[in-house]
């Protein structure tokens, strides 16, 4: 509700007072400096801790929820382009590409040179490392959100057309960058 109100205020002031005021609606923008309370950083930090031998396993809820994840670096460029546009307007910045939490976890583990396979169903599902059979990921029903949104995806076609903006960082590059940064915090170099 607060986001909708902020959007309305921007449009209202832009039209009523002739102000240069634009809205940027940014879908999930991620990177190594993302706050540690966000799920993406919880996963990348857990994977780094597993690689460092400080943790055995991490727990998640719904692995099938889909998100439109992009690089914060790309979105900062998009915000800059919004502010350079000759007239104020409203833009969505997104990749128009979705990935499940399962694929995010798989990508994080692949970036750390581990391959995961899942077995079981529902809350009994376990992600194990293929070579060692070690349980790396388990499901915990406490992490299922009662108001979970199954799919979040944005359409940045207006930003592409009017601003020439499009994301440059692929999902795999973003995931690798985040995992490598968290591993470096443990003194581990993956590349």
From TrEMBL:
GO terms for molecular function: GDP-mannose 4,6-dehydratase activity. The keyword Lyase applies. One of its GO terms (biological process) is 'de novo' GDP-L-fucose biosynthetic process. Its cofactor is NADP(+). Residues 2-178 form the NAD(P)-binding domain. SUPFAM superfamilies: NAD(P)-binding Rossmann-fold domains. Its EC number is 4.2.1.47. Pfam families: GDP_Man_Dehyd. Keywords: Lyase. It is an enzyme of class 4 (lyase). Belongs to the NAD(P)-dependent epimerase/dehydratase family. GDP-mannose 4,6-dehydratase subfamily. This is GDP-mannose 4,6-dehydratase.
